[in-house]
Amino acid sequence: MQQRYLFPLFFLAAVAVFRVILHFVDKNRIKDEIEAKGGRVVAITWNPFGRGWFFEKNERHYRVAYTDRSGAALSTTCKTSLFSGVYWADGPTLPEPAPRIIPRYSCSGCGYALNAEWQACPNCGKARGLV
Predict the structure, then answer these.
(1) Are 126 and 82 in a shared domain?
(2) What pTM value is reported for the model?
(3) I need a labelling partner for 58 at 20 to 30 A (CA). Which of 47, 74, 108, 128 fits?
(4) Which DSSP letter does residue 48 get?
(5) Looking at residue 100, what is its pLDDT?
(6) CB within 8 A of 65, min separation 6: which ones?
(7) Among 33, 29, 26, 68, which Cα is nearest to 48's?
(8) What share of the chain is helix, strand, coil (3-state, %, to 5)?
(9) Most distant CA pair in the chain: distance in Å?
């Protein structure tokens, strides 16, 4: 009689342990994605009834609070599963920084970025007085 109840209890315990392990794997995956874009995670909480939960199978939903690289506090939801990446419900919220182009040479008269082969500034016409 006692052995008949042992297997279901063992099965439920194994499922619970597996779900806890997946939770920590998901949190690390979400944290890595935010930090790769220059953000910092404040909190990650499981959200079982997150956006789009009704028809999804084998996916877990999370509410994520974080600060972006500019220091703005943001909050959004995402979903993830064992063999897929992180999908953000509200789209990408971490803006990519604008590329900074620092000219190697600039005109001493107007500050226009110059090509190394130019002998005069095309903006003001000043001869090669480079800074």
Answers:
(1) no
(2) 0.60
(3) 74
(4) T
(5) 63
(6) 41, 42, 43, 44, 73, 74, 75
(7) 26
(8) 25, 25, 45
(9) 99
Q: Which residue bears the tokens 């806890």?
A: 20
- If asked whether residues 60 and 124 sit together in one domain, one would say no
Q: What is the dihedral of CA 66, 67, 68, 71, to 10 degrees?
A: 170
Rounded Cα gap, residues 26 and 74, in angstroms: 19
pLDDT digits (tens, 9 = 90+) for 39-72: 899 999 988 877 666 666 778 889 999 998 888 8
Q: What are 85's two structure tokens?
A: 């990446």
- Residue that has been written with the tokens 């099965």 in this structure: 11
Residue 124 to residue 119: CA distance in whole angstroms: 12
Helices (H), 1-131: 2-36
d(Cα 37, Cα 92) in Å, to the nearest integer? 10
Q: Are 75 and 109 members of one domain?
A: no
CB 62 within 8 A of CB 79: yes
Asked if residue 113 is part of any domain, the answer here is yes
